[in-house]
Amino acid sequence: MNTVVRKIGNSEGVILPKELLNAMNLKAGDSVLIVQDGDELRLRRVEDTADEFERKMAVARARMKKYEKVYRALAK
Known about the structure:
Helices cover about 40% and strands about 25% of the residues. By secondary structure, it is of the alpha+beta class. It has 2 domains: about 1-45, Pemi-like Protein 1, Chain: D (Ribbon), CATH 2.10.260.10; about 50-75.
């Protein structure tokens, strides 16, 4: 399956064919990971589970608490 790197706004990107999106059960807004393997690029779906989201939020809350004074000073 061939495609072309295209100008998209100020960036460049690749448009994935609808058939591929359907086959991989991907839709707009889904996260993918790009892996470089030598001269190949591979796309992998990133499944952000509820547990993963909660883990990330716990890290964010801990950092916000640790650096609360800095964030308040920066917010002024």
